[in-house]
Amino acid sequence: MKKILPFLFLAFASLFIFSCKDDSDSDTYSRMRDVTGSFTNGNGYAFTQGIDINQTDVVLVYRAAGNAWQQIPKSIYLPNSGTLPTNRVFDYNFVFDSQNVQIRIDDQNFDLGTQMTQAEATSYLSNQRFRLVLVPAEATKNASSVDYSDYNAVVKYYHLDETKVPTTKVN
Asked: Whole-prediction pTM value?
């Protein structure tokens, strides 16, 4: 009995330790921020929003498209328009690190400043609204079933409150 008692005590202590283990990181949680800005030749068709996340966290970026959100990167194909070049394509894209997210237009095969109609420039360059979704790396470990291209699925999975999204205007 004396030989079994230490093993029973060790088993009980182990059970207590593992049952009380808290794997959650209480200071990191998914959050959102809206950023509105205009793409111009003066800002190099890019703008930056400061953030503060861990090196391992993930940033998702969505662009407001009417009443919906579309995930970027996203290619935009402009229709042929009279004297303007054909096959006008550009990409909304982004890069991020733990301090900043830069949203930009990449791979333009035409001059955005002179080869867009005024309506196109207004629709695609002026006052563009983006939603940044900051997701802790820990939260993405078990999120393999989430379709990140589906904004509504992301909001539902991470229990994000769309009524409390702070907004920033850049440039």
From this structure: 0.78
| 19 dihedral zone (left: phi>0; alpha: psi -120 to 50; beta) | alpha
What is the CB neighbour count within 10 angstroms for residue 135?
24
CA 63 vs. chain centroid, Å, equals 10
Where in the chain are the domains? 26-169
Element (H, E) at 19: helix 4-19
pLDDT tens track for 27-53 = 446 789 999 999 999 999 999 999 988
User: Which whole number is the average pLDDT over 106-124?
Assistant: 90
Pairing of strands 100-106, 88-96: antiparallel
Q: How confident is the model at residue 1 (pLDDT cuts 50, 70, 90)?
A: low
CB atoms within 10 A of CB 15: 10
Burial class (CB in 10 A: 0-12, 13-18, 19+), 113: middle
Cβ–Cβ under 8 Å, residues 115 and 124: no
Q: How confident is the model at residue 137 (pLDDT cuts 50, 70, 90)?
A: confident
The first and second tokens of residue 167, run together, are 């907004």
Maximal C-alpha separation, the chain = 95
